[in-house]
Amino acid sequence: MTPAARLTLTTLAVAVALAAGYFAGTRNADHAAPIAPTASSDSNPAATAPGAKKILYYRNPMGLPDTSPVPKKDSMGMDYIPVYEGEDAGADDSGAVTVSPSRLQTLGVRTAVAELRTLGEPVRVVGRVAINERTTVDVAPRFEGWIERLHVNASGDPVRRGQALFSVYSPELLSAGSELQIAERLQHDAANDPAAADSAKRLADATRARVSNWQMKLPESAKAAGGRLTFTSPANGVVLEKKAVEGMRFMPGDALYRIADLSTVWVLADVYERDLPRVKAGQPATVTLDAFPGRSFTAKVAYLYPTLDAATRTTPIRLELANPDGLLRPGLFAHAEVATGTTAPALTVPTSALIDSGERQVVLVAQGEGRFAPRPVKVGRRGSEHVEILEGVAAGDSVVISANFLIDAESNLRAALATFTASKDSGTATTQHYSAEGTLDAIDTSAGTVSITHGEIPALKWPPMTMDFNLASPELVKGIAPGSAIRFEFEQRVPGEFAITRVEAAAPASAGHKGH
Length: 516
Description:
By secondary structure, the chain is α+β, with helices and mostly antiparallel strands.
């Protein structure tokens, strides 16, 4: 080869080497440009520079329902992932929604503060108006006779104490009057004979005792009365029952009239056994009746009956209330609320703030700037206007009390769309799949898990690390020994739980493992 040709080939080789070196350096620079975010990168001023999106909070990198207002790491040393303004509405599966000020006004959204208060906790019962049994009397002569005349001759008639009811004729009454007259005359005539006078006195006393046992008072002239007597009403009230008929014969003990004083009445109501410990005698109550809408009557618990109806699991209670105008008629259907509230304050929210579907109980907490988040709560006692909250909110939290059902419906829809979007992006109906390379460190067949050291997985923003995975089936690792290099696929089934669905042996990698 001539010197000229040798010089030309040398020059060409140097040019090719320089071009290859430049090309390789360019590729290395391209690969080195993306740097995995760290805790310090989250606080990079560029993230909050003018025009950049505001970081709302940081979410758990493993998909667990855990957030943080500041950068932090999880138990495995992984950085929490920032969620930027405008991204949370579609990505936050907690259901939080943001409502514009104009829409807040259109919906009529109102809020109230959860606060400590003495909870009015009435026991609501239903019952019926009944006669006050203590004011009911029967008019029943204790001797035999005939009714000659009725002065009150209809049931339901009002009567006053001392008013004439009926007149009777009784041979026994006439005989008692005659005996008393004879005894009194003998006692007067035998004034000089002590023995005769004493006998006459004993006869007169016996006659008076017999008449007293009849609960009657003889007229001054029994002979003139001729065995006739007028019965009067023993109390004010109305005639509930009247069995007396003119001309009828009555026997001792026959109840001819039943009279009840309705100036006070009872309400007999049934209390379920779960409410019995809260009801005590003397507690105030409010009674309303369908017959008088808009009116209420004040009552008090007078008595709890000692028995329980096994069929209805209720115990009757007795409420007493005044009835000066006679509006409360026995038999009317009544509603009653017994005030059983305690003096100890409890954390409460207005009743309208609670959204109770039967399966879940939530309130919507206002987080400011038109943002509302559903908060599951545990409910305690219920009052007429407020309900006790045992868990879920704290004193001072602002809760929605108007239009909350509309916001809750949007929250549920937003959460459902977030789940649907994640499923759609994963290419499957319900789960998203990932793949990576690594080293199989250990197999636990009894627990159905494996320990794998894998490379970076950009799709989940995971750095290289060693972690445990569940196995979809123990057959996946059959024939693969610990320490082997593998390629594997896995899916997230529930937040924080990942299951391997495919494993295959791979040639050992010379520099780190990669995932996607």
